[in-house]
Write a structure and sequence with these properties.
This protein is an alpha/beta fold. The protein has a single domain, classed as 3-Layer(aba) Sandwich (Rossmann fold), CATH 3.40.50.720. The protein is built from eight helices and seven strands. Strands 3-2-1-4-5-6-7 form a seven-stranded parallel β-sheet, sandwiched between helices. Helix 5 links the parallel strand 5 and strand 6. Helix 3 packs parallel to helix 4. The longest helix has 27 residues. The radius of gyration is 17 Å and the shape is globular.
Length: 256
């Protein structure tokens, strides 16, 4: 199993891509810390992983709050004795609309959840990874978006936040490499089954909107949580021990 016995935090794991990633990592032997701000959703995912024979526990935390993230990292270390990987999956978008119509509160929220969360996990997890036995280090996998490199109109501030994730990931990789800490990011394409799909689309994802998004993906289908989970599992594994600073598009050639 590629991530057997690795202690991995997955943020925003109560639904969507985060849930699919947490479930898949557990099937591959990871010791998963399921995080979400929604306690009911996160507890459900962790319980279902355990019922299926995997190892998982839930920690409620707001990834925009330093004290919460510090407690999340501490809980993972207490539960599993170490921390090998953080999957920064928690994300949010303002509704698809002209850039001048996005409120200041929504702008602040999109950057807090999508970008500040990475700052906070770095602040609290890097010292722990540096202390891992034998200089084994660790890794961060930041879930960005195709929006960060091929933006769609109407999502300007979200697009900018994801571009920030991509640039930040590369800079982190360059700076933390000497500590044997790898940093990579993944760019999923639109997935109509996530909780934020209507916000991306600017309304309910009806057949017309589905067709418009699908037409931009050469492989002819949307991404799934499992598509992203497979990429996360590889990047978290020792098979990717020399992979750092990359941004992997899981997008069916959308960004070509």
């Amino acid at each position: 199993m590629p991530v057997a016995h690795k202690s991995i935090i997955v943020t925003g794991a109560g639904s969507g891509i985060g849930e699919g990633t947490a479930r898949h990592l557990a099937t591959q032997g990871a010791l998963v810390t399921v995080n979400d701000i929604n306690a009911e959703a996160g507890e459900r995912v962790a319980a279902e992983i355990r019922a299926a024979g995997g190892q998982a526990h839930f920690v409620q935390a707001d990834v925009t709050c330093s004290a919460d993230v510090q407690a999340l990292v501490a809980a993972a270390v207490q539960q599993h004795g170490r921390l090998d990987c953080v999957v920064n999956n928690a994300g949010w978008t303002h509704r698809n609309r002209p850039l001048l119509e996005v409120s200041e509160a929504d702008f602040d929220r999109v950057y807090a959840i999508n970008v500040k969360s990475i700052y906070l996990t770095a602040i609290h997890a890097v010292p722990v990874m540096r202390a891992n036995p034998g200089g084994s280090g660790g890794s961060f996998i930041n879930i960005a978006s195709t929006a960060g490199i091929r933006p769609r109109p109407g999502l300007t501030w979200y697009n900018g936040s994801k571009a920030a994730v991509i640039g930040t990931s590369k800079s982190m990789a360059a700076e933390l490499g000497p500590d044997n800490i790898r940093v990579n990011c993944i760019n999923p394409v639109f997935n109509p089954d996530t909780g934020l799909a209507a916000e991306f689309a600017g309304g309910p994802v009806d057949e017309a909107r589905r067709a418009r998004f699908l037409a931009s993906i050469p492989l002819g289908r949307f991404s799934t949580a499992l598509d992203v989970a497979h990429a996360v599992c590889y990047l978290a594994s020792d098979e990717a021990s020399f992979i750092s600073g990359v941004c992997l598009e899981v997008d069916g050639a959308r960004c070509v």
